[in-house]
Amino acid sequence: MPLAAPAPPPSQATVLVVEDDEHLRDLVVQLLGRFGYAARQVGSAEEALEALDESADVALVLTDLVMPGMSGLDLTQVLADRHPHLPVLLTTAHWNPDLQRLLDRTGTDLIRKPYTAPDLRAAVDAACRATSAPDPQGLR
């Protein structure tokens, strides 16, 4: 039985990819493009903050957890203050139960490396759809 085609991404959302591994970052951006998303890319959390200060068109931040300088978790905490309605999807190969408890407390989603293209698509689609519903207070 053929699988149903995945639903199109919500309103061609823009994903900011924050990944210090250039090859992986390029691959993720290519995949997001194939999935119908616009993607921007930066190599550090600090660059991500600059990019977000310059542009409000980002619907999701997809960030690695472990990076030189500011970590993805630190970035998530800064974004919670600066852009509280901007969803963040963390990615890491360094998962442990303590990290999961922290993510559960903060409501942050995680996709574990290594992940497949369908796993990436499902996680990004879900994160974007969770915030694409109309906001009655007009805050998004």
**Which spans of ≥5 residues are poorly predicted at pLDDT below 50?**
1-5, 134-140
Instruction: Give the N-terminus to C-terminus distance in angstroms.
Output: 40 Å
Query: Could you give me the name of the CATH homologous superfamily?
Result: Response regulator
Quantity of strands, as a count: 5
Order of helices and strands: EHEHEHEHEH
Query: Could you state the oligomeric state of the chains shown?
Result: single chain
- The number of domains: 1
**What is Rg?**
15 Å
Helix-and-strand structural type: alpha/beta
The major beta sheet can be summarized as: 5 strands, parallel
Q: What is the strand content?
A: 15-25%
Side by side, the strands of the main sheet go 2-1-3-4-5
Q: Whole-number average pLDDT?
A: 86
Shape: globular
Alpha plus pi helix count: 5
Task: Furnish the topology, listing elements before pairings.
Layout: E1 14-18, H1 22-34, E2 38-42, H2 45-54, E3 58-64, H3 72-82, E4 88-92, H4 97-106, E5 109-112, H5 117-132
Parallel strand pairs: 1-2, 1-3, 3-4, 4-5
What features would you describe in this structure?
The structure is a single chain. This protein is of the alpha/beta class and 140 residues long. The protein has one domain (10-132): Rossmann fold, CATH 3.40.50.2300. The protein is 43% helix and 19% strand. It has a five-stranded parallel β-sheet, sandwiched between helices. Helix 4 links the parallel strand 4 (88-92) and strand 5 (109-112). Helix 2 (45-54) packs parallel to helix 3 (72-82). The longest helix has 16 residues, at 117-132. It is globular, with a radius of gyration of 15 Å.
